[in-house]
Amino acid sequence: MTVSNNPLWLYDTILRDGAQREGISLSLTDKLTIARRLDQLGIPFIEGGWPGANPKDVQFFWQLQEEPLEQAEIVAFCSTRRPHKAVETDKMLQAILSAGTRWVTIFGKSWDLHVLEGLQTSLAENLAMISDTIAYLRSQGRRVIYDAEHWFDGYRANPDYALATLATAQQAGAEWLVMCDTNGGTLPGQISEITIKVLQGLGLDGRSEHQPQLGIHAHNDSGTAVANSLLAVEAGATMVQGTINGYGERCGNANLCTLIPNLQLKLDYDCIKPEQLAHLTSTSRLISEMVNLAPDDHAPFVGRSAFAHKGGIHVSAVQRNPFTYEHIAPDVVGNERRIVVSEQAGLSNVLSKAELFGIALDRQDPACRAILETLKDLEQQGYQFEAAEASFELLMRQAMGDRQPLFLVQGFQVHCDLLTPAENPAYRNALATVKVTVNGQNILEVAEGNGPVSALDQALRKALTRFYPQIADFHLTDYKVRILDGGAGTSAKTRVLVESSNGDRRWTTVGVSGNILEASYQAVVEGIEYGLRLLTCGLTNQEVIST
Ligand SMILES: CC(=O)SCCNC(=O)CCNC(=O)[C@H](O)C(C)(C)COP(=O)(O)OP(=O)(O)OC[C@H]1O[C@@H](n2cnc3c(N)ncnc32)[C@H](O)[C@@H]1OP(=O)(O)O
Ligand SMILES: CC(=O)C(=O)O
After folding, report:
1. Which ligand is closest in space to the CA of residue 118?
2. What is the rounded average pLDDT of the residues 332-348?
3. CA of 78 to the centre of ligand 2 (A)
4. Does the beta carbon of 383 lie inside 6 Å of ligand 1?
5. Are 143 and 160 in contact (CB under 8 A)?
6. 100, 223, 460, 545: which has the highest count of C-beta atoms within 10 A?
C-alpha cells in the first residue's frame, strides 16, 4: 500500500456484496481472476468473501494463501458472534481465522430495531457481541474493520445507542469504523450531517493514524450511493467501500468506477496511480464480461458513450478543443472519444468519420455536404447509422466515387416451411435462391437455412465463394429487428441491423424497408460487401475482436 499526502483508502466488495446481486454467480476461478485484476488496479483492500458461509469462499482464501496478491490486502468478512455464544466456539469466527488474512471485516448491528427484532436479543448483548468478537480477533493477531450495518437508520432512530456500538468497536480494537447505509435510503445532506456528528461524538479527528478512522459503505437504493460516499469523504471519512460497476445487493453499491476518478481527479485524493487509473475502463469491461452482464454504455467515465459526441455543435467544438464538451480527458481513465453520425450530425461529424476511414475529404468539397444531406435523408426514412458504421462508410465511399461494385444481386427468392418435423429438430426450414452477377458471369445458387435471413446469407455466400474464397470465414453474429412505425401493423417499416464477423473483425450494416426480407437483404448484402472490401481494399477502422 502506498502512503501519500492526501490518502483515501479504497475497499472493493464485488466478491462479497457484488455477488449478492441477483443474476451474479461467480465461480472460484472468476473470483480469483477478479481479485488479481483489482490488485493490479491498485485497490488496497479487496473483500474476498465470507469464509464461513460457503465452501467456495473457503477455497478462495486458501488459494490466495498459496499465491498471494501483489499489493492488496485481501479481507475476510463475517458477522459478530451469535447472541449468548462464546467466540471460541463460533464456527464462523473459526472459519474467518482459517482464511489466514491479516485483515478481517466484521459487521454488527447499529440499529436498536435490528437488535431487538432481527437478532431477537438485548441491546446490551449486542454490545457484548461486538466487543467480544473484535477483541477475540485482535487477540488472534487480526486487524479489524468494523462495518456498522444500518448505521444511518440506527443513528436516526437512537443516536446514543448507535454511537455506543461504534465506541464499543473502537475500544475493542477496530481500526476502521465503516458507516453502512445498508438499506440505501439516506440522502446526501443527512450523510454529511451524521458523519460530522460521529467524529464529534467519538472524539475523532478523522485523519490521525493513532485513532480509528471512518469509512462509508453506501447502497444505491435512492440512486445516491456515489454522492453519499463523496459527501462522507468530504465530511471526514477516509475509506470508501464500493464495487466496480456498482454491482451489489438490490440496486447495488457505490460504483467505484465513478468514485475513483471523482475522488482522484476532482477532489485531489490519492487513490491509485495514474497509470492504474488508465486501466479503469478495461477493468470495468472485463468484470462486466466475467459476471455476464452487458456493460452500461452510458456509465460515467467508463461507458462506451461517456465520451461519444453526437450533436454537430458538440463535434465541431470538441475538434477545436475537447474540453468544450468533455469534463476530463477520456484517456486518463482508459476510455476514448467517439464521434457518432446521425441526423443530429453536422459537417464536423462527417469530416471526423472521413478521417477515421482514411478518406480524403475537405469541408469545402461539395461531396461533404452531399454526404451529410444523404445521411439526414436516410435517417428520416428510418436508417440509423450510429450503430451501423460499415454502412455509413460504404455510403461515403459511394459519394466519393470509390465504391466499384464487387457483385450485383439480380434477384432473390425465399421460401419458408414452418412445419419443422418434430422428429428432426435440425431440419432447416427455409430455402433461398439468388441470382448474382460477378465479373460478367451470372450465377444462380440455392441454399437452405434456419430461417429466411440465414438461407439468404448462405445462398449469397455460396454464389460468391468461388470468386472470393475468404467469404467462407464470414459469419452473421447478430441480427436485430426494430419496427419503426408500430401503428401501421403488418405494413410497418422495419429496420434491420446485421453484425458480421470474419473472426478478427466485426462490422454492422443496416437495411430499411416495409418488407422485413428486403430490409434484411440490404443489410446482409452490405455486410458481405463490406467484409470483402475489408480484405480487398484494406479498410481498417472496424472493431477488432479481442481474443
Ligand atoms: C448487510 C449485509 O449484506 S450482511 C451480509 C449478508 N450476506 C449473506 O447473508 C450471504 C451469506 N449468508 C449465508 O450464507 C447464510 O445466511 C449464513 C451462513 C451466514 C447464515 O445461515 P443460517 O445460519 O442458516 O442463518 P440464516 O441465514 O437463516 O439467518 C441469519 C442468522 O444470522 C444472524 N445474524 C444476522 N446478523 C448478525 C450479526 N451481525 N451478528 C450475529 N448474528 C447475526 C440472524 O439473527 C440469524 O440467526 P438465527 O437464525 O440464529 O436467528
Ligand atoms: C455490510 C454491508 O454490506 C451493509 O451493511 O450493506
Report:
1. 1
2. 96
3. 11
4. no
5. no
6. 460
Any atom of ligand 1 within 6 Å of the Cβ of 12: no
| Grid cell digits, residue 374 | 444523404
CA 60 distance to own-chain centroid: 24
Ligand 1 proximity of 109 Cβ (cutoff 6 Å): yes
Kindly report the average pLDDT of the chain as a whole number: 93
The per-residue pLDDT for range 254-313, each reduced to its tens digit, is 999 999 999 999 999 999 999 999 999 999 999 999 999 999 999 999 999 999 999 999
Report ipTM (2 d.p.).
Answer: 0.96
User: Of 105, 180, 220, which is best to mutate to test ligand 2, by the most ligand atoms within 8 angstroms of its C-beta?
Assistant: 180
How far does residue 195's CA lie from ligand 1's centre (Å)? Answer: 27
Q: Given this model, what pLDDT does residue 541 score?
A: 53
Number of the ligand 1 atom closest to the C-alpha atom of 150: 1
The string of pLDDT tens digits covering residues 25-69 is: 999 999 999 999 999 999 999 999 999 899 999 999 999 999 999
pLDDT tens digit sequence for 361-386: 999 999 999 999 999 999 999 999 99
Which ligand 2 atom is nearest residue 107's CA?
Answer: 1
**Mean pLDDT to the nearest integer, 395-421:** 89
Three-state SS at 229: helix
Dmax over Cα atoms in the chain, in whole Å? 92
149 lines ligand 1 (CB under 6 A): yes
Which ligand minimizes its atom distance to the CA of 185? 2
| 152, 181 Cβ separation under 8 angstroms | yes
Position in ligand 1 atom list of the atom nearest CA 147: 1
pTM: 0.89
| CB atoms closer than 10 angstroms to residue 168 | 21
CB 38 within 8 A of CB 244: yes
Q: Are residues 12 and 243 in contact, defined by beta-carbon separation less than 8 angstroms?
A: yes
What does the block give as the cell for 395? 455510403
* CB neighbour list of residue 91: distance below 8 Å, 6 or more residues apart: 52
Q: Whose CA is nearest to atom 6 of ligand 2?
A: 182
CB 157 within 8 A of CB 113: yes
110, 146, 178, 219, best to mutate for ligand 2 pocket (most atoms within 8 Å of CB): 219
Domains of the chain are 9-290 (3.20.20.70), 308-399 (no CATH), 408-419+428-544 (3.30.160.270)
Indicate which ligand has the atom closest to the C-alpha of 148: 2
Under a CB-based contact definition with an 8 Å cutoff, are residues 509 and 498 in contact?
yes
Relative to the alpha carbon of 225, which ligand is closest? Answer: 2
Instruction: Please provide the DSSP assignment of 319-357 as one string.
Output: HH-GGGT-SS-GGGGT---EE--STT--HHHHHHHHHHH
Long-range contacts of 246-249 (CB under 8 A, 24+ apart): 246/220, 247/14, 247/17, 247/18, 247/21, 247/24, 247/291, 247/293, 248/13, 248/14, 248/17, 248/18, 248/20, 248/21, 248/219, 248/220, 249/17, 249/20, 249/21, 249/219
Backbone angles phi, psi at 121, to 5 degrees: -140, -175
- Atom nearest to 54 CA in ligand 1: 14
